[in-house]
Amino acid sequence: MAGKRGLDIILHIAEYAPSKGGFDRVLKMIKITGGGEGRAFGEFTVEKEHLNQQGTLHSGLTGTIVDNISTYAMMSTGSHPGVTANLNVCYLSGAKAGEVVQIDARTVRAGRKMAYLDIFLKRKSDGILIATGRQIKYIDFDKKKLDY
């Protein structure tokens, strides 16, 4: 079934990316709770190491989550991960240490060359949106076009 296959892809990527020792290791705190067919769901508990100077979820970590988890959603359709052409994050509220943040990423459209992705982060306790994000990715990687 496509949904199961898609979720398997998300779970594999979510395990693989943080294990390579690069910057994506910051994503190890996210537990994928579902997804497939262009969607990815997850959650994490905000820890002290995730905070900014004001004691709320760091905007850089939020941006990283928007970039990566929306890409996981897109990859569940079988798409190439592509490269980011545009990334936009709207910061709406904060999250403090100990709060659980839920993630809902959606593939709005994945065409032959470009993909359009949306993501929503909210506090689990009250459903308040912490941030929304939108990403546009270039996904047309025809090997013949890349050879020089």
Automatic annotation (TrEMBL):
Signal peptide: none annotated. The keyword Hydrolase applies. GO terms for molecular function: fatty acyl-CoA hydrolase activity. The keyword Hydrolase applies. InterPro entries: ACOT13 (IPR039298), HotDog_dom_sf (IPR029069), PAAI_dom (IPR003736), Thioestr_dom (IPR006683). Keywords: Hydrolase. Residues 54-127 form the Thioesterase domain. It comes from the Eukaryota. PANTHER family: ACYL-COENZYME A THIOESTERASE 13, THIOESTERASE SUPERFAMILY MEMBER-RELATED. Belongs to the thioesterase PaaI family. This is Acyl-coenzyme A thioesterase 13-like. It comes from Drosophila pseudoobscura pseudoobscura (Fruit fly). The gene is LOC6900993.
